[in-house]
Design goal:
With 82 residues, the protein is mainly alpha-helical. It is built from one helix and no strands.
Length: 82
Amino acid sequence: MGMHFGNLAKVRHVITYSLSPFEQRAFPNYFSKGIPNVWRRFTASFFKVAPPMILMYVTYAWGNSVNQQSKRKVAADYENDE
């Protein structure tokens, strides 16, 4: 009754390899190569990413403070009201 679901199409010139899960190592070279690589990548990109983020945060904080100051009422304008 036709082809099975896994054999619906024939693909030529494609080679697939697989490795048994019992032969794999879950975290090979994790401490000797993984953590130093993360540190190297972090320090390489930190000075590219941090200055714009700091500048944008300072601009955002300044904008919020100016907005709060402009929304405040001036007490001297309402001294003679009764």
